[in-house]
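Entry 12.
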Amino acid sequence: MPSAIEQIVDAYVRLKNRRGLDELMMHRQRLAVDLKSRSGYDFSLPIGKIDEEIAIIEAGLSRLKAEAADPGATPPS
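Predicted 3D structure (tokens):
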């Protein structure tokens, strides 16, 4: 079963919503920077999760870019 972030990214890709993906990416990047600058607690787990989500969003952006370059291609089911 896909995670929530995978489902969100898939929806944005299907809708060709580049802006939504960009905003999602910026939000996750801000969270990562904020958590990495904090001390006094081990934030490695949430930072790892956010890094995973950033990778999923990057993959979605790549899919969107590939579809834009080849508009005749059928999306995977």
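Annotation: The CA atoms of residues 43 and 64 lie 31 Å apart. The helical segments are 4-14, 18-37, 44-69.
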